[in-house]
């Protein structure tokens, strides 16, 4: 398979295709679904449908109806009856995705989980909590914290993204370096098969495939999650490290020297200056890139790690800001979590790619990215979870400037080709969705694609759950 091959509709098994429901008849199908759902209303008001057409990419779909199930039985009925009618079904948490994963391409029914936010049980002796899929990550954290626990998965969107979405995309986040991605903390799932059957399976079974499947194999209703006791101590530090390349060298040297932070983030100089402007914080526009680190755990370990960092910074003559205590730490974390909104305000359109690379190649990758952006005359910002090799590459542009958008598309193609050549992946946590499936040929041979498509067909032979995404054979 040649690099950049665009998978056409019908290129794989019939299970990969969008159900053959013509747009002219789909509205009648929506009406019939409404009659079959009894008391659960299918909303077809234009204004409401419009607001469920998008995710964070700004890509637009066409929701012909939206439903808001409130419990397991209603959700199962929606899935079963949509399947019987051959109606495309698109699950939606909070719509914070950056790959078009919840966008209703080609028309169909959007199923919003926003009314399913219960905490069913909390077992501190087992270190587990069971929640509905629509609960927001931060709502779960706020439930756990007074009880002395936390959920380790914390994507940057934790204040708005849902647990169901986190599982479907196998979200990472800053703390993934120490604690791993979402899948590691899922014990079991209650989910709805395309037939409408309600299943409860541990992560040793089919549930393992649902985590990270981007909503293409089944519908997640609830999850039993692992939670951890709050650490005894935390300390957050910001280290100004000069150039991008020196920041990456510094990160490698710190890890090689035995430093084990819970969080290790890279923020390039342009991004850091942008955050300072957004938060009105002087001193962040130094022209230097930085590392953002957090140590957590027993107080003795945190203090030892902090001393190691202090010693390193003195030897290398690097400027370090440290925050101790909740208030100071929250200030630095607020700066870190302000990156995305600070960038969003600078461009009408933000192209956000989240490539992943071997740790030893990050410096070369950052140099290539900035060089390619300069060559194409694009405004580029880079930050990310350098501890586990995940870089977020942002191009700020304006979709109304067609020539500039063409250059941006060219940049993305070059970026993915370079990442694949360096042994990396097209996505670290955002997923493939509808924005990256055209590039899968850079990573996989045709036989590998067919094998993965076969898994989807085994779960959903009709291909009506979240069609047009991932390996489903439709290009964006």
Written account of the structure:
This protein is α+β, with helices and mostly antiparallel strands and 476 residues long. It contains 15 helices and 17 strands. It has 4 domains: 115 residues, Uridine Diphospho-n-acetylenolpyruvylglucosamine Reductase, domain 2 (2-Layer Sandwich); 111 residues, Uridine Diphospho-n-acetylenolpyruvylglucosamine Reductase, domain 3; 108 residues, 2-Layer Sandwich (Alpha-Beta Plaits); 87 residues, Alpha-Beta Plaits (2-Layer Sandwich), CATH 3.30.70. The chain has a 7-stranded antiparallel sheet, sandwiched between helices. The chain has a 5-stranded antiparallel sheet with strand order 4-5-9-7-8. Helix 13 packs antiparallel against helix 14. It is globular and about 70 Å long. The N terminus is likely disordered.
Characteristic key phrases:
21% strand, Uridine Diphospho-n-acetylenolpyruvylglucosamine Reductase, domain 3, 476 residues, 4 domains, globular, 5-stranded antiparallel β-sheet
C-alpha geometry: globular
β-strand amount: 15-25%
Q: Provide the CATH architecture of the largest domain.
A: 2-Layer Sandwich
What CATH calls the topology of the largest domain is: Uridine Diphospho-n-acetylenolpyruvylglucosamine Reductase, domain 2
CATH superfamily annotation of the largest domain: Uridine Diphospho-n-acetylenolpyruvylglucosamine Reductase, domain 2
Largest sheet: 7 strands, antiparallel
Q: Give the tally of structural domains.
A: 4
Distance N to C terminus: 19 Å
User: Rg to the nearest angstrom?
Assistant: 23 Å
């Amino acid at each position: 398979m040649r690099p950049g091959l665009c998978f056409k509709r019908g290129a794989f098994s019939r299970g990969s295709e969008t159900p053959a429901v013509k747009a002219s008849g789909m509205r009648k199908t929506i009406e019939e679904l409404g009659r079959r759902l009894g008391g659960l209303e299918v909303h077809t008001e234009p204004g409401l449908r419009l607001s469920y057409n998008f995710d964070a990419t700004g890509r637009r779909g066409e929701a012909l109806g939206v439903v808001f199930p409130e419990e397991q039985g209603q959700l199962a009925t929606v899935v079963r009856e949509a399947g019987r009618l051959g109606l495309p079904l698109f699950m939606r948490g909070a719509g914070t995705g950056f790959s078009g994963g919840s966008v209703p391409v080609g028309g169909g029914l959007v199923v919003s989980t926003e009314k399913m936010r219960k905490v069913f049980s909390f077992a501190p002796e087992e270190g587990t909590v069971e929640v509905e899929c629509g609960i927001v990550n931060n709502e779960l954290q706020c439930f756990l914290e007074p009880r002395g626990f936390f959920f380790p998965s914390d994507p940057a969107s934790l204040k708005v993204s849902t647990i169901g979405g986190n599982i479907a995309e196998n979200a990472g986040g800053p703390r993934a370096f120490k604690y791993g991605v979402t899948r590691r903390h899922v014990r079991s799932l209650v989910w709805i098969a395309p037939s409408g059957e309600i299943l409860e399976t541990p992560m040793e079974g089919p549930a393992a495939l649902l985590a990270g499947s981007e909503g293409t194999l089944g519908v997640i209703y609830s999850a039993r999650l692992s939670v951890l006791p709050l650490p005894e101590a935390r300390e957050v530090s910001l280290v100004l490290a000069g150039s991008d390349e020196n920041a990456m060298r510094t990160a490698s040297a710190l890890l090689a020297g035995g430093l084990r932070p819970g969080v290790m983030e890279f923020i390039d100089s342009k991004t850091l200056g942008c955050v300072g402007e957004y938060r009105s914080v002087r001193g962040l526009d130094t022209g230097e890139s930085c590392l953002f680190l957090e140590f957590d755990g027993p107080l003795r370990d945190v203090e030892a790690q902090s001393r190691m960092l202090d010693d390193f910074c003195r030897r290398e003559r690097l400027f370090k800001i440290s925050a101790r205590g909740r208030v100071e730490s929250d200030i630095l974390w607020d700066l870190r979590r302000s990156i995305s909104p600070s960038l969003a305000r600078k461009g009408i359109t933000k192209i956000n790619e989240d490539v992943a690379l071997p740790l030893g190649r990050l410096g070369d990758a950052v140099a290539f990215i900035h060089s390619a952006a300069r060559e194409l005359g694009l405004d580029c910002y880079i930050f990310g979870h350098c501890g586990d090799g995940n870089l977020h590459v942002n191009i700020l542009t304006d979709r109304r400037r067609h020539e500039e958008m063409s250059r941006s598309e060219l940049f993305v193609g070059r970026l993915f080709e370079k990442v694949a050549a360096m042994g990396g992946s097209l996505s670290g946590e955002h997923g493939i969705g509808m924005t990256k499936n055209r590039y899968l040929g850079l990573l996989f041979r045709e036989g590998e694609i067919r094998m993965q498509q076969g898994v989807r067909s085994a779960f959903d032979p009709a291909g009506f759950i979240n069609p047009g995404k991932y390996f489903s054979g439709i290009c964006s």
